[in-house]
Design a protein that fits this description.
The structure holds two protein chains of two kinds. Chain A is about 40% helix and about 10% strand. Chain A is α/β, with parallel strands linked by helices. Classes of the chains: A alpha/beta, B alpha/beta. The interface of A and B includes residues 198 and 242 of A.
Chain lengths: ~300, ~250
């Protein structure tokens, strides 16, 4: 499965780190990882997409190829551009193949022990100037970088799903992150057509934190019997929100949204502003997780 | 249809509402900023179909509004009170004609808004509820009934979003522009919560939070000190934005 990776021209990174022609590594070939790999490859980078099993890597690269070819069929770009981007992505299950990367973006499962182990191994295979970024949304950069020899080369680079379409990326400075590292990642994100915002390493960063009341107050209003979910969603849409809180939780996954709520709540030492609602837990425990299970706050007769 | 609308010195809600009702052909009388000129509009109140009072920030102004309207409005005319910082029941409980009090919430921006939130106080009569509904329908707004509480639905949700955004700026998670940009691009909010708070009025947002804190007795609704300071100073969370664009309410 491991495709040979041609050396990128002039990876000679400046002191600040990788440049526009750096090789980009992506760890984790799931939805987020594949989306990030697609973004980097589309912008002209050679990309090494790593996962622990050949099946995962194959699924990730095939998904990217399918999306880019579909885009060409729909006239969004030329078939040649799609094929060129697809050809820039090499898959691997060998961590050593990430050695030439100037920037590695980790999109592995949200487990601290796993990420800490992974970052220690990544640090051992890359140059001292390489930047290691985490796409975590619930863990701190501090906790992931804490045990490393070069924590100043680590930052957060938080994409939003689907990564190829969503313009925002949050660039997170941990307490030990070199400001030049964050600045380099901001510059790369701009080159990729993204809109980067810099944030400090606080629970939920910006979006996952500031959005909490949208769900939290809606859940409380539901719990208080102020209105049903359809009415609350309708009022939110009438105020200009593209989706109401309940249809949005159904789309995100009620379990995923609940995990984010719990993570921010824990991160802020149980500040009552972030307290999750019992309705969320009951929905998760009952197995009604939203669209993906065919039933959440609404029923979806044909689960996709 | 004739409607009396009363506002408060720092609020645009009465003027915004008056513009919307006038555009719908309703005869709007009243005072969008002060009720000191009570003699000017009091004679009209005796033949009005309803009174709408829009005080949010100042409880004393609100008490005076509802007392005046309860005295001047003809029997049977509903007294429609803004619930952005007080439940309809709390307001109704201060007047003799509690049965005719109906709550509403209508958060800016009002452009393109199709609905208005209505809430029955514990005391509200069926006839007052029906009469209040008719007023909003005549204005081209669809009434959506929700449970009575301080802030009803949208003022409560948006005030809490703005508060969390203000906390994020206060604890230096990110700058104000980046917080607004992140919420618009990362989760497709129609406007940044900080710019939205400026549009609503920081004193207004603060009044909603304080009313929620008082009603629920929970630290959850504690206003960010930054928000409280800026509201006191008459300043804004996004001073980089054009205040004229954030005002946007016409006069009565």
């Amino acid at each position: 499965m491991s495709a040979p990776l041609p050396a990128a021209p002039g990876t000679g990174a400046a002191a600040s780190g990788p440049t526009a022609d750096a090789v980009i590594g992506v760890v984790g070939a799931g939805t987020m990882g594949a989306g990030i790999a697609q973004v980097a490859a589309w912008s002209g980078h050679r990309v090494v997409l790593f996962d622990i099993a050949p099946d995962f890597v194959a699924r990730g690269t095939a998904g990217i190829a399918r999306l880019l070819r579909r885009g060409a069929e729909k006239g969004r770009h030329t078939p040649d551009a799609a094929e060129a981007a697809i050809a820039r992505i090499g898959g691997t299950v060998a961590l050593d193949d990430l050695g030439p990367c100037g920037l590695i973006i980790e999109a592995a499962p949200e487990r601290l022990d796993l990420k800490r182990d992974l970052f220690a191994r990544l640090e051992a295979v890359v140059d001292a100037e390489a930047i290691l970024a985490t796409n975590t949304s619930t863990l701190s950069v501090a906790s992931i970088a804490g045990g490393l020899a070069r924590p100043e080369r680590v930052c957060g680079l938080h994409f939003f799903n689907p990564a190829p379409l969503m313009p925002l990326v949050e660039v997170i400075r941990g307490p030990r992150t070199d400001p030049a590292v964050a600045a380099t990642v901001v510059g790369l994100a701009r080159l990729w057509g993204k809109t980067p915002v810099e944030a400090q390493d606080r629970p939920g960063f910006i979006v996952n934190r500031v959005a909490r009341p949208f769900y939290g107050e809606a859940l409380r209003l539901l719990g208080e019997g102020a209105a049903d979910v359809a009415t609350l969603d309708r009022l939110a849409r009438d105020a200009g929100f593209p989706m109401g809180p309940f249809e949005l939780m159904d789309l995100i996954g009620i379990d995923v949204n609940y995990a984010a709520a719990c993570s921010v709540y824990e991160g802020f030492f149980h500040d009552p502003r972030f307290r999750p609602h019992p309705i969320q837990r009951a929905m998760v425990e009952s197995g009604r997780l939203g669209r993906k299970t065919g039933h959440g706050y609404y029923a979806y007769p044909d689960p996709s | 249809m004739r409607i009396i609308i009363l506002g408060e010195p720092t609020g645009d809600l009465a003027a915004g509402l008056a513009a919307r009702l006038s555009a719908a052909g309703i005869d709007v009388r009243g005072a969008p900023r002060t009720v000191d000129d009570v003699d000017d509009w009091a004679p009209a109140a005796g033949r009005a179909d309803a009174g709408i009072e829009c005080a949010v920030v100042d409880g004393a102004v609100k008490a005076r509004h509802v007392a005046l309207l309860d005295r001047l409005l003809p029997p049977g005319a509903p007294l429609i009170t803004c619930c952005h910082a007080a439940s309809a029941t709390l307001t109704a409980s201060s007047v003799d004609g509690a049965a005719r009090v109906v709550g509403f919430a209508w958060l800016p921006p009002w452009e393109g808004r199709a609905t208005v939130e209505l809430a029955r106080a514990v005391q509200t009569s069926d006839t007052a509820a029906a009469a209040a509904e008719a007023v909003w329908r005549a204005a081209g707004l669809e009434p959506v009934w929700v449970g009575d509480s301080a802030g009803l639905v949208l003022p409560r949700i948006v005030a809490c979003l703005a508060n969390e955004a203000a906390f994020a700026v206060q604890d230096q998670t990110a700058g104000a522009e980046d917080v607004d940009r992140a919420m618009m691009l990362g989760t497709r909010y129609p406007r940044g919560p900080l710019a939205w708070a400026d549009l609503i009025g920081l004193d207004h947002v603060l009044a909603t939070l304080d009313a929620l804190a008082a009603e629920h007795g929970e630290d959850r609704y504690r206003a960010a000190p930054l928000l409280r300071r800026l509201a006191a100073a008459g300043s804004r969370l996004r001073p980089d934005l054009d205040p004229a664009a954030a005002a946007g309410a016409s006069r009565l």
